Amino acid sequence: MISSQVKSFGFGGGDEEKKEEGGASDPAAAAGMTRDEYEEYQRQLVEEKMERDATFVQKKAERATLRVHMREKYRLPQSEKDESQIQMAGDDVDLPEELQKMVAEDQDEEEDKNSIFGHLQHIQDMDLDTIKEKAQTTFTEMKQAAENKCFIM
Description:
One of its GO terms (biological process) is synaptic vesicle exocytosis. By secondary structure, the protein is mainly α. The protein has helices at residues 2-8, 14-21, 27-31, 35-73, 80-88, 97-114, 116-125, 128-149. 77% of the residues lie in helices and 0% in strands. Residues 16-24 have low confidence and may be disordered. The chain has eight helices and no strands. Helix 4 packs across helix 5.
């Protein structure tokens, strides 16, 4: 009784039963395939893994390219990790179309802001009344500070 429980836990004695079951040490036979089918299956698994890895590296490089672009735009320090990821992908990394559209829109907005028309449009958006009030309060504060410091006024 105890020996059967010990065998079920894998503590010895199980070798005899495995040998009697019929040599299932061949992985193809264990999977229920012929040797050729099993080799073809293994080759397909390796190819699929290589394709997934290549796609993963490509996606990582695309994200790194986006981060590099954002760092350039906002003048942040560059990362060597991003550059190495781009180089691993073979330097032929392009941004996805949606990101290219976003980048193009950002560049257009920045160009508009830097142009004369952008500044004129910005001036139209300003509230002149609040600017006048701020200027008047600043002037009165400066005048009071000068009066407190100067005895002649």
